[in-house]
Automatic annotation (TrEMBL):
Keyword terms, alphabetized: Hydrolase
Domain of life: Bacteria
Lineage: Bacteria, Pseudomonadati, Pseudomonadota, Alphaproteobacteria, Hyphomicrobiales
Region span, Disordered: 303-326
Stated name of the protein: Isochorismatase family protein
Compositional bias ranges of the Polar residues kind: 316-326
């Protein structure tokens, strides 16, 4: 089944011939897929069947029956499950132990229609739509409506269970508000309307929406079944919405750039997989999986710490400060990169010794720090990946488009099989470690690094090595763009001098990585 590219940009997001795999089938009507970022499984709703199910490597099993005809789901940063329940007309929260708590059920003293889809902003606020599908037979429990209109609501970060939600749109704007999602920077909120067959977008200003306008319209086809229902935003700001024949993908400017074909009527979608590059689609009786090239908007729960107890929303990423306590890293998600720690790069007598690199490496105590960290990672089962810059004799295949590459040739540096290309004493690869070879500054370019990370099921990276303002920074920037969470222990890195090192650490790397210290990383992996 071929997908349809209407714009060249679509090819960057998905292969036009990417297979659509049936991951599970035999259900009544699937909805609300959500991927657990720590334990790596998919939850989804079988709404009319009144069952919540889990899909993992062992197959599909029930996890809640009855489920109050749950529909849309997501997690907060504490990895509490948030569920829109049709049968109860409420938004409910389930802590990791399964304890259920009703967050919201009434507005202005009247029962909500039937919360349908839900998302969380990085400030901890919860946003949801409220059409009345759950008061229809089959999709919920047939009963009269109390509100008489369909709105979109917000629960503030300090919301207390039972308090009424905040209405964030005019109550008569939408006929059947359904899917909703934030843009990557959360400056925009997209909301679609199933009956109006359109998507509206709003500017987000704190706790309020403004400047509502139509983003896309005419999402219908007289020859194909399908309507706007579930909707998500990818890391590049493209909007993926269920539609006739499958999913329609819109650029951030509202241009329809492609269509993803799905065998059954789609209802909702979400990214998952160890690298967040598997798109799961709930479609009528089945759940489908498609490999894609782009990841999701980095939602707050995706950056949550490991399995946290229920409680208030915590930090949205692994961090350490006076409010969040010690750094906490999930060893099951991390890999360690040791980059360019080779004799020619950082040792006296090496090809680049006159640059000052050996002296700064000693000042940083980088070799000893990385060695301690590597040993800790091996103990914890964290993959250790050595990335080495290696050229063949004569440097065939190395282009001269940058002074660094010219220096490799001029100094006959980093030649395969020579002392200069070998790992520095103390950081030699050990049994079970991975070795990646490159001929570029970034560890990603022309290498099998990402293949190794996918095989190991890792989506977070601790990066060490040389040189801070070159290979380390380039690799961190690309890793962040690819959706990996990057951690830089700054005393496990070095370059030519302290000024260059500090400039990179204090500015560029602060925008793409968590910068910390080796001892803190070792303690966090305990």
């Amino acid at each position: 089944m071929a997908h349809e590219a209407l714009d060249p940009d679509f090819h960057r997001l998905i292969d036009e011939h990417a297979p659509v795999r049936q991951a599970g089938s035999g259900f009544t009507f699937t909805e609300g897929p959500i991927w657990h970022p720590v334990d790596h499984y998919l939850l989804f709703s079988d709404m009319p069947g009144d069952v919540r199910r889990r899909l993992d490597r062992s197959g599909v099993r029930e996890v809640m029956n009855p489920s109050h005809k749950g529909n849309g789901m997501t997690y907060d940063t504490g990895l509490n499950l948030l569920v829109c329940e049709h049968a109860t007309s409420c938004v409910a929260r389930f802590d990791p132990d399964g304890r259920r708590e009703v967050l919201a059920s009434h507005f202005e003293g009247r029962e909500l229609n039937s919360p349908n889809d839900i998302c969380v902003k990085s400030d901890g606020s919860i946003w949801f739509t409220d059409p009345w599908y759950g008061r229809m037979a089959g999709y919920g429990v047939e009963r009269p409506r109390e509100l008489g209109w369909q709105g979109v609501f917000r629960l503030p970060p300090d919301h207390r269970p039972g308090n009424e939600p905040q209405l964030v749109v005019d109550r008569y704007t939408f006929t059947m508000p359904n899917g909703l999602c934030f843009s990557p920077d959360e400056s925009l909120l997209y909301i679609n309307d199933t009956e109006q067959a359109n998507i509206r977008v709003y500017d987000v200003e704190g706790d309020r929406l403004s400047n509502g306008r139509v983003f896309a319209s005419g999402i219908k086809d007289s020859l194909l079944p399908g309507v706007p229902d579930g909707m998500k935003c990818d890391a590049e700001g493209n909007v993926w919405c269920t539609a006739p024949g499958g999913l329609w993908v819109y650029s951030p400017e509202g241009r329809l750039i492609g269509k993803v074909s799905i065998p059954e009527l789609p209802a909702n979608l979400h990214w998952g997989g160890a690298d967040w590059r598997t798109l799961y689609v709930c479609a009528t009786t089945s759940v489908y999986a498609i490999d894609v090239k782009v990841g999701p908007r980095n939602e707050p729960f995706m950056r949550a710490r490991g399995s946290q107890p229920a409680g208030p929303a915590d930090s949205t990423a692994p961090t350490a400060d006076e409010t969040s306590g010690p750094l906490n890293l999930d060893a099951n998600r991390f890999a360690l990169i040791i980059q360019d720690m080779q004799n020619d790069v950082v040792m006296e007598g090496g090809a680049f010794a006159e640059s000052g690199s050996p002296g700064h490496c000693r000042e940083q105590n980088a070799i000893a720090n990385v060695a301690r960290l590597a040993e800790k990672c091996r103990q914890m089962g964290v993959p250790v990946i050595h990335v080495h810059f290696v050229v063949p004799p004569g440097a065939q295949g190395l282009t001269l488009n940058a002074p660094l590459f010219e220096g490799v040739i001029d100094n006959t540096a980093l030649v395969r099989g020579t002392w200069g290309a070998a790992a520095v004493p103390g950081l030699e690869p050990k049994d079970g470690d991975h070795i990646v070879e490159k001929m570029r500054m970034s560890a990603w370019e022309g290498t099998n690094l990402e293949t190794i990370l996918k095989a190991e099921g890792r989506d977070m990276i601790i990066e060490t090595g040389a040189w801070t303002n070159m290979s380390i920074e380039h690799t961190a920037r690309t890793g962040a763009d690819k959706g990996y969470f990057m951690v830089i222990p700054e005393d496990g890195c070095s370059t030519m001098n302290a000024d260059w090192h500090n400039a990179s650490i204090n500015y560029a790397l602060q925008n793409v990585a968590l910068v910390t210290r080796t001892d803190d990383v070792i303690a966090a992996l305990s």
